[in-house]
Amino acid sequence: MEIFDAKLWVIGLALHVTIETRDTLQTHGVTQVAVFSDSQTAIRRVEYLVPGPGLRLPRRINRTSEALLAHIIATEIDCVLGPSSIPGNNKVDRQAHLARDASGDTVIERPYTSPLN
Fold first, then answer.
1. How far apart are CA 42 and CA 63, in angstroms?
2. Largest CA distance in the chain
3. What number of helices (H) and strands (E) belong to the chain?
4. pLDDT tens figures, 43-67
C-alpha cells in the first residue's frame, strides 16, 4: 500500500469508527464530524470520483459519509498543514502504518499528556 492509499485508508477508518458510534454521537447531539488529513491530494480524490486507478477507497469513504448523513450526521474532511516539523511525527507515521497492516484492532490507546508524547 502506498502512502497515498494509507492517507485514504485513515480517512475511511475515521468515518467507519464514526458510523459504528453514531448512536452515542446522536445521543450527545452531534450533527457534524470533521476528519483532518495533511494530504490535499487524498481529499481531492475523495471529492472527485473520476474513473481511474485507486477508486475503491474514495468510493468507500463517500458511501460511509452518505450513510452518516442518512443518520443526520454531516461529514467534513479538512486539510491541515503537514506535521513534518512536529517532534514525534515519524513515530506517529510508523504507528499509523502498523495499525493499517494489523489484522485485528487498529486502535492504539494512549493517554494524551502533551503535544510531544
1. 16
2. 44
3. 5, 2
4. 888 888 888 777 889 999 999 999 9
